[in-house]
Amino acid sequence: MTTLSILLLVLLFLPFAYLLAMALASIRPARALDWKDRPAATRFAIAIPAHNEDTVIASTVQRLLALNYPPEHFTVHIVADHCSDQTAMLARQAGAVVHERNLGPRSGKGAALTWLFERILQDPDVDAVIIFDADTRVDADFLRVMDARLTGGAQVVQGQHRISNPHQGWFPALTWAMFLIDNRYQNLGRANLGWSAKHMGDSICFRAGVLRRLGWGEGLTEDYQLRQRLLLEGTQIAYEPAALGLGEAPLTWHQARAQRARWLRGTRDASRQFAGQLLREGLKRGDGALLDGALQAYLPSYSTLTLLAVLLLAAQLIFYWAGGHIAAWAWIAWAVFVALLYFYPLFGLALERAPLRAYLAILTGPVFMVWRTWLALQARLGRRAVTWVRTAHGGGPK
Fold it and tell me: Of 175, 202, 199, 44, which Cα lies nearest the Cα of 109?
């Protein structure tokens, strides 16, 4: 049984080594970006999809128009997508250019943005497009930071997206803590390894030519799919933590469940479409970013990996208590591995110098792991249709 125990440990450690590589790479901080006192060089179009967002849209537009960037160098565009409230009127009064979309079925954010980009990108003076959600609160220097990155040669830049409402319940607090870790490991770690950052669907900037060439796409997770298409064409997503945007997390388990189910089903579908091609091209080109895209699709998540480790360790304990034999050194190896899994998220919070409440929130993570893994199994094995469900906004600070 000792041999089997170590074999299982090795099989679990291999995917963990991939996660660990990003964590260790994230120890090195992001390079300082010289963006102050630079003349504005980029003309931005800010794109926001909005469906019945009259509780937040006016304040969002007002904050964006007050950003520290020459007002003649950017425009805020809102697509009021099949709205039955006052979103369009309030956005227009706040100073945005409003595009009302009412024809055809409403099928989610991807379709709305694709429709909006067809209009925005007709303007040849638009150099870059930034996507925000209707509730996103943006740091005052966001556009200046993005201007500096684009001037430096970046084609796509993901800003640091955080959660604005951790005080509003257990799920927002846990999501806030997880985003701190995700930004550190999944984005900064990848950037330091020379890989492509995650496409988080918010607080992200594209050169206009990239969107004219590839479009945006539609589906349950068009942002995840677009990242894979960018990888295949050789374009990486840069990460810039100095460009900060904050959005609201779902307040209730019901809201979160619908959102997570969509993400998990959408990433499954996109992985089936692109993972094999990413792996083949990555091996052919010797490209670490492409291989990372494939591994992200094939390997289990941290939550699933941790649950598997706990279940397998429990099975071995039952075997041992029933009279079976496992060598002491095998138990030590398992103990070290489980400790690494336990400290993995805590290490990310330490690197971020997170406050105590982030640690307290992440300690409740095992409940989330079970919940997420169950949703992932349903997404992979279930046949029930998953549709786009809007997450309600308006609970966060104004």
Answer: 202
Q: Indicate whether 389 pLDDT > 60.
A: no
Residue (of 14, 22, 31, 120) closest to 77 by Cα position:
120
Residues counted in the chain: 398
Q: Which pair of structure tokens corresponds to residue 217?
A: 């796409």
Stated as kind and residue range, the H or E segment containing 335 is: helix 328-351
Going by C-alpha positions, the residue among 296, 260, 217, 291 that lies closest to residue 372 is 260
Tell me the two tokens of residue 265. 């089903």
Tokens (6 digits) for 288: 């670490």
Residue 107 has pLDDT above 90, yes or no: no
- Domains, the chain, ranges and CATH? 2-26+300-381 (no CATH), 44-256 (3.90.550.10)
Q: Extract long-range pairs of 297-302: CB within 8 Å, 24+ residues apart.
A: 297/267, 297/270, 297/271, 298/271, 299/15, 299/18, 300/15, 301/372, 301/373, 301/376, 302/19, 302/341, 302/344, 302/345
**Alpha carbon distance 172, 166 (integer Å):** 5
Asked if residue 241 lies in contact with residue 199, where contact means CB atoms within 8 angstroms, the answer is: no
Short-list 154, 176, 157, 194, CA closest to 21: 194
- Write the single-letter amino acid at 119: R
336-363 exposure pattern, b = at least 16 Cβ within 10 A, e = fewer: ebbebbeebbebbbebbebeeebeebbe
Q: What share of the chain has pLDDT > 70, as a percent?
A: 93
Statement: residue 174 has pLDDT above 50: yes
Alpha-carbon distance of 237 to 226, in angstroms, equals: 11
The answer to whether residues 327 and 4 touch, using CB atoms and an 8 Å cutoff, is no
